[in-house]
Design brief:
Elements: E1 16-19, E2 25-30, H1 36-44, H2 48-55, H3 64-71, E3 78-85, E4 88-98, E5 111-118, H4 127-141, E6 146-151, H5 156-163, E7 169-174, E8 177-183, H6 188-210, E9 214-218, H7 227-238, E10 243-247, E11 257-258, E12 261-264, E13 276-279, H8 286-296, E14 300-303, H9 313-328, E15 332-334, E16 340-343, E17 350-353, E18 361-368, H10 371-382, E19 394-399, H11 408-416, E20 423-428, H12 434-445, E21 450-454, H13 472-481, E22 485-487, H14 490-502, E23 510-515, H15 518-530, E24 534-535, E25 539-540, H16 547-559, E26 565-570, H17 580-594, E27 600-604, H18 608-615, H19 628-636, E28 656-657, H20 660-680, H21 694-705, E29 711-712, H22 715-724, E30 732-734, H23 738-748, E31 752-756, E32 770-774, H24 777-791, H25 794-797, E33 799-803, E34 809-818, E35 822-829, H26 832-835, E36 840-844, H27 849-857, H28 876-892, E37 896-906, E38 911-913, E39 916-920
């Protein structure tokens, strides 16, 4: 809430870029006194019908008084927002705070009237819905809790905007007007509506980039070899189904064509609409190209040009300006410094990239930020022998470069409901918004596998991301909990992707192994044990096994109810690759097709012909006869080129791997993912506790924060706030003198513990700063004297006396608000296990009952809680309840930025919180429940 002294300051944090329903972008910002001419121009372009709906009467033009009223706001009781494209208004919304009598008012009145006006040319694009989200967030920030709107019954579009928003509302009809009143507190439905709109809009924005009807290559040179000319050639060779244009301001005026493609000196000279522009000009010429594209109505840009954030501070500012410039025209950007995009759909056949070959159509979506990694991924999926063999091709490929605008989150939104993509593979050097990525990943993974390699180092220079305080391992763990198949290398990325693209998910970890090599079978068996699978004893068919023997063995294994997956091991015959490879591949495919419910993998040793036969039906490699350049390149690289064996149409495809470890690792990831899918179907619930005083906690937090911007609570305030959520802490009484210690012990009752709480001794029983089970005053005074003699004066030690808790296992519970990942709940055993070995488990808040149960079982030292070596099991239900209460505290109150409970002694019956600390800070202006916005850097 702003004070009176700054009520009129311009709220820059309300500015935001948004994606509209059709995939275009608009900028939302507060309306100021400088917008008078824009407002008048905007109003002149609105139809008489829309004006009538806004003012309930003919209103052909705005008077000077109207203009003054609609441009002068105090940003507290009167607020106006505008949606702009190209700097011009396309829609406006305003609220006026009102009192109980419906007249203008100031705080503490918490209701406001809201009204919209959308230019007719932009109606149906979701502009009003986006404005409603933003004006509602502004109103909540200004302590307005309810909106009222009066709408004519015929204005069905605006009524639908309000009713579809998902807020709790009431509707009245009086005097020929519909009066809508709705609370602004986000509801489960309003959040769901907002996220569904976000998904549709962002998916559509990516779809416009990947399915253009026309493409202009800006910077296509006349001489072969340049970047622009190469992309133009790649588009032509791929057979792009739309219109192509070559653009270069250096073209002679009489040049009409370049490589049979219409040539123009400027995008402005193209008579037809252009959907996508590939920009391949020097960085200093990009602004001019962007302006030309924007003025021509181009929908999106792929910027291949380098010289941006990856080149230093000056380039970073150039990149910011590029994004601002493009979004001002409603365009989205892939890049800059991008490798390009590919869409293999026969309806599009788009290769707007630097990849010289078009992958064969398939079901795998690829995303890489780095061009080099993108090349490596495409190469791996191209290769036939001597490496991973692909069983399917590529649906779409995006290399985002510096990802100044379009990111992995946007592409995930597109893949989520893309019918051409079954598996998503992503190489992420950085994650700009881990909280959103985790949310999108969880939803995507529930529908289709998502395999990710996450860079472990700092973000590349060209990537501007919000800093995270969480360790890399923690972020990885959170991704796994969201259903992400997290792997370490691009080899593992492709291995897992190939298995998931054409094989069913395993229903469990039991694995049957058979083949014609006893040693290879044993290696596979050992690899299964290492990956936590449950292999059955390997079956050796001997080296004399025929294709019929393999067929029969696979049929028996697939029919065996004691196995969930089958790994076939095969070694080649001595000598040259024989035609028997095709026979063996057909035998395995036919057996697998007869029982398609279980996954089948093949481990081969330099068996190129078999690999080709198994995957020939939809290989990612171009057909041999159509790509001599690819064949020559592979031969130059020393890659074996076995004779291709085509699979019959509709054949059951089996992935083949050159090493047992790689096949088994891919299978293990599929097993874990399948288990996550089963558990995700019932994610649990966030329980309600009747003794939680959410309102009282909010009042306490508000009072504490009134004294400062951020503070660590004292012992009494910490205990009081935790108590509001039903979390009881054992009282610790300061003992600055031996007499004070004796009085405290007398009040608490013996036995007691004497602890030093100085930072260097806190929770360090190993250093001798804790004395336990002191049965009487004599033992207490003796312990006090020992502590002061060993470690210094009471002022340095800060000793406290605390009643003894029942014996149990010492644990630690933490919750932090990370600026990038959001609220994270962590659990581990206190002491060396968590501090030295890092044995902590993590979950995103809010935590469900299933999350809490899995959290305490996820640490490596969890057996100590469940009766390890005959010890007494502890009260894990009480521990789960504590975790759920802490989760509720930080979820209900974003001002609680850190909670530490240490130690929490979990006994056979009940638990004791012996130490606690809480830190408060003002909540962020925007969180994951806020309005839709594009990131700004």
């Amino acid at each position: 809430m702003q004070s009176a002294s700054d009520r009129h300051e311009y709220p820059a944090h309300w500015e935001a870029d948004v994606v509209l329903r059709d995939g275009g972008t608009a900028r939302i910002r507060p309306i100021t006194v400088d917008d008078a001419e824009r407002l008048v121009s905007f109003y002149e372009q609105v139809s008489d019908e829309s004006k009538y709906y806004r003012f309930f009467a003919p209103y052909p033009r705005l008077s000077a008084k109207d203009v003054h009223r609609f441009t002068h706001h105090d940003f507290v009781d009167r607020v106006g927002l505008a949606a702009t494209i190209g700097g011009e208004f396309i829609a406006t919304v305003r609220y006026d705070r009102i009192g109980a009598d419906g007249m203008a008012a100031s705080a503490p009145a918490d209701e406001a009237e809201v009204a919209f006006l959308v230019q007719d040319a932009h109606q149906g694009r979701g502009v009003a819905s986006a404005l409603l989200e933003h004006i509602a967030a502004v109103a909540r920030e200004r302590d307005i809790r309810r909106f009222a709107a009066e709408v004519l019954p015929a204005n069905t579009k605006m009524i639908k905007v309000f009713t579809d928003a998902g807020y709790t509302q009431q509707r009245h009809f009086e005097d020929g007007v519909v009066r809508l009143e709705f609370d602004l507190e986000p509801t489960e439905r309003s959040v769901a509506v907002q996220r569904a709109r976000e998904q549709r809009a962002e998916a559509h924005s990516v779809r416009r980039l990947l399915t253009p009807g026309s493409v202009a290559v800006v910077g296509a040179g006349r001489t072969p070899g340049g970047v622009g000319r190469s992309v133009l050639g790649n588009l032509r060779e791929a057979g792009f189904t739309g219109r192509l244009y070559a653009v270069n301001k250096a073209f002679p005026e009489d040049l009409k064509e370049l490589d049979s493609v219409p040539a123009h000196r400027s995008v402005r000279d193209i008579a037809e609409p252009v959907d996508l522009a590939v920009v391949a000009v020097p960085a200093e010429q990009v602004p001019e190209a962007v302006a030309e594209c924007g003025e021509h109505g181009v929908q999106g840009l792929v910027v291949l040009s380098a010289g941006y954030a990856e080149s230093g501070p000056e380039g970073r500012e150039r990149q910011r300006e590029l994004v601002r410039h493009a979004r001002a025209y409603g365009m989205r950007i892939i890049g800059p410094n991008a490798f390009g995009v590919i869409n293999t759909s026969p309806r599009v056949r788009l290769n707007a990239s630097l990849a010289p070959e078009m992958p064969r159509p398939g079901r795998i979506g690829l995303f890489a930020q780095s061009g080099a990694i993108g090349i490596a991924l495409l190469s791996r999926l191209h290769r036939r022998g001597g490496g991973v063999t692909g069983v399917t091709g590529v649906s779409t490929f995006v290399s985002s470069g510096n990802r100044a605008d379009v990111s992995g989150n946007d592409v995930l939104q597109y893949w989520y409901d893309d019918p051409d993509t079954d598996v998503a593979l992503m190489y992420l050097e950085s994650i700009g918004n881990p909280r959103k990525f985790t949310r999108l990943a969880r939803r995507t993974a529930a529908a289709k596998p998502l395999v990710v390699v996450q860079g472990a180092g700092s973000a590349p220079q060209g990537h501007t991301v919000r800093a995270t305080r969480l360790p890399h391992a923690t972020v990885s763990a959170l991704l796994r909990q969201a259903g992400v198949i997290r792997v370490d290398t691009i080899t593992e990325l492709v291995d897992a992707g190939l298995l998931l693209a054409r094989q069913p998910l395993p229903t469990g970890p039991r694995v049957a192994i058979f083949g014609n090599s006893e040693s290879l079978g044993q290696l596979t068996y050992d690899a299964c044990l290492s990956e936590g699978l449950r292999p059955l004893p390997p079956l050796d068919l001997t080296t004399e096994a025929s294709a019929e023997d393999f067929h029969a063995a696979l049929a028996r294994a697939l029919a065996d109810e004691t196995c969930d997956a089958v790994v076939v091991t095969a070694i080649p015959a001595i000598g040259e690759v024989s035609p028997g490879d095709g026979e063996l591949a057909q035998a395995l495919r036919s057996a697998a097709a007869a029982a398609p419910a279980k996954p089948v993998l093949v481990v081969h040793v330099e068996l190129g012909g078999l690999a080709a036969a198994l995957s020939a039906a939809t290989s990612t490699a171009p057909r041999t006869e159509t790509t001599p350049r690819a064949r020559v390149a592979a031969q130059d690289a020393g890659t074996p080129q076995p004779a291709a064996v085509e699979a019959p149409e509709g054949a059951h495809l089996i992935p083949a791997y050159p090493a047992a470890e790689r096949a088994v690792r891919a299978l293990a990831e599929a097993v874990k993912y399948a288990q996550w899918r089963r558990e995700a179907a019932d994610p649990g619930k966030v329980p309600e506790y009747e003794d939680i005083d959410e309102k009282g906690a909010a009042e306490l937090i508000g009072g504490l924060l009134a004294s400062g911007q951020g503070l660590t609570l004292g012992t009494e305030e910490t205990c009081e706030l935790l108590g509001r959520y039903g979390i009881r802490t054992r009282r610790a009484i300061p003992a600055p003198t031996p007499d004070a210690a004796a009085r405290a012990a007398g009040a608490l009752g013996y036995p007691v513990a004497l602890k030093a709480t100085a930072p260097h001794l806190r929770h360090r029983a190993d250093l001798g700063g804790v004395r336990l089970d002191l049965a009487d005053e004599e033992q207490l005074r003796r312990a006090y004297a020992e502590l002061t003699e060993l470690f210094g004066s009471p002022e340095e030690l800060r000793p406290v006396v605390q009643a003894m808790a029942p014996r149990g296992v010492d644990t630690v519970v933490r919750a932090v608000i990370d600026p990038a990942a959001g609220a994270v709940l962590s659990f581990g055993l206190a002491g060396a296990a968590s501090q030295l070995l890092g044995d902590m488990a993590h979950r995103l808040v809010p935590v469900t009952d299933r999350d809490a149960a899995s959290l305490i079982r996820s640490i490596r030292t969890a057996p100590l809680l469940f009766g390890w070596r005959g010890s007494t099991p502890v009260d894990t239900p009480a521990l789960e309840e504590l975790l759920l209460r802490v989760s509720r505290l930080v979820d209900d109150h974003p001002e609680v930025v850190a909670v530490t409970l240490e130690p929490v002694v979990v006994a056979a019956h009940g638990l004791s919180v012996l130490g606690a600390s809480i830190r408060l800070a003002p909540p962020p202006a925007r969180d994951d429940l806020g309005p839709r916005t594009l990131p700004t850097y």
